[in-house]
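Rotation project, supervised by the postdoc (A.L.). Task for the rotation student: set up a whole-complex structure prediction and record inputs and outputs verbatim in this book. Inputs entered:
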Amino acid sequence: MPSEITMPQLSDTMTEGTVVKWHKKEGDKVKAGEEIAEVETDKAVMPMESFESGTLAVIAIPEGGKAPVGAVLGVIATGSEKVEDVKKGFKPGSGSAGKTEEAPKKAEEPKADAKKVESSSTEPAKPQAEAEKPKAAPQSTTPTPSKSHAIKSSPGKYQFDIVVIGGGPAGYAAAIRAGQLKKRVLCIEKENLGGTCLNWGCIPTKALLEDGNFVRKMRTEASHRGITFDNLQVDFSKIVGRSRGIAEKLSKGIAHLFKKYEVKSEFGTAKVLGPHKVSVTTKDGTKEITGDHIIIAVGAKTTPLPGVKFDGKKVITSREAMNLPTQPKKLAIIGAGAIGCEFADFYNSLGTEVTVIEMQDHLLPNEDEDVSILLERSFAKRGIDVRIKTKTDKVETTETGVKITLSGGKAGVVEADAVLVAIGVTGNADDVADPKSGLELFKGRVKVTPDFRSNLENVYSVGDCISLHWPEQSGMGGYRHPDLAHVAHHEAVQIVEMIAGHDVHGLDYKQIPGCTYTHPQVASMGYTEKKARETGREIRVGKFPFSVSGRALAAGESEGFVKLIFDAKYGELLGVHMIGEHVTELISELVMARKLEATESEIIEAIHPHPTLSEAVMEAAGVAAGRAIHL
Ligand SMILES: Cc1cc2nc3c(=O)[nH]c(=O)nc-3n(C[C@H](O)[C@H](O)[C@H](O)COP(=O)(O)OP(=O)(O)OC[C@H]3O[C@@H](n4cnc5c(N)ncnc54)[C@H](O)[C@@H]3O)c2cc1C
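Outputs recorded:
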């Protein structure tokens, strides 16, 4: 079937673009993934790559020609089609370019950028990735998953317009947005409003980390600043108590917002029985509730180590680790992702002997290598026993604690009061799907399309409990979903706005910022240097150390750097990698820069206030361009 190359939507405001250059002429062979043209928007010149292999049969818009978003720029003859037939069948301006007269009906499916997915039939929604493959896209952006979706609603037919299962950042954000949009909405939560994030994740851990850092600074840095004191005492239970208090306060805040936006809530365990039907079990029994739309937002739980059971005391999850009755003298942590590293930081700050065990090559293995290496050095300097490239062979509980046998990098036996297992999370979707519902799952997660639809009519899922099952995500390592509160939040708002009939923009999963609140902190977005090089693009890397930042020196926080990766040809920001104090705040500048498609020179030319840590961002871009002043 001929494959159309259409003018992509490169930014939210773009309505048309200019074809600056064709790298191929009619009759040339093209390979899938090959750069075939360059398109200019009001902001930048962007390369376009072909999604299909074949022969470029038609150039519909020549170099210098303007075309609206979605217009056909060219057609590729694929498979056994003859180039002449494709050319003959092409009707300029018809909007269905590339069809030959004999082309099968399937060629008339809507184009990626003019999507209208009807769910009005009783048939399960067809996975969009199957139905609509984008034909060409700029190399730099993930294909926008959703836009202008028609969703069938039946106002008044069911008890609620929207039933949300789960009251975490995905569920509560969905419920609040639905309330704001005047939907009759019910949120069912089996534990506490705020979910993992507010009660057992993001927030309570940050409270602990702040207190740990405070103690560490008093112990190790105060005297350098001329501050001395006697007999510093730390009350562990007060530190834990403060953290729990903040969690409780924020959970109550969600209840207040529910009231404000007229969101009804029910405390109980929900199950999806099928389209429009949910059961809720409370201590008073089980009842059925109907909703026009159902949003599943049930989150995830800690993945256990194979063959090792959690006992809540010696083999623990992050939940117990943030609420221990007494401070352990020795703590082992298996898994050095964000959660493992944050607990290592906290307990080390309070004086616990900490061992971190990581099977992969580095701490925070998904981060840029330069960042991970610096964190390893920093942890080692603080006395944390960092065991990378080390495999956990056995975990045994003993009378006094645990005994862990290790092989590989730093093999041996580690004994500790307890072991925190932090090797990842598994979706909670198994528990929410009634076996008769027919809800399709993948490894404990709800299988969804790019617009978060499950296989059941008007049943959607967002947040930590979903599995990304569309081909465009293969670049991020298959089905991996970034299990982060801000991702859950944005997915939730998006699906509710779609239900309400709003035009929405997809999430670019390649540009999700991620933060780790260790000391030094870590923040990143986009390609690591290694991944950027693997794409084959020519890149420029700029790295600016905080050791030459006046503000960082004045604050006594000069460890770390800002590293920015740009496309050498277009100055496009491809990757951001930062380590140092407050970088979890600095990253937002670059999130915005990326969203507004700011280039290297625009970052350099934006006036950053002095003295601030943010100057390191400007200077890192300057280093990449050979224009840095302070290095
Ligand atoms: C220790 C730790 C630290 C973290 N730190 C960060 C961080 O700094 N930044 C960040 O972005 N992310 C962080 N995360 C991840 C973040 O907490 C999650 O990505 C986020 O909470 C996901 O939101 P969610 O709404 O999808 O799921 P959850 O927050 O898990 O909420 C799901 C809710 O559904 C409820 N539920 C489950 N099943 C049912 C059912 N059958 N019926 C009714 N209710 C049900 C649960 O009780 C829960 O309240 C951290 C996680 C942990 C564990």
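Student's summary: The longest helix spans residues 236-260.
Supervisor addendum: The chain has a mean pLDDT of 88.
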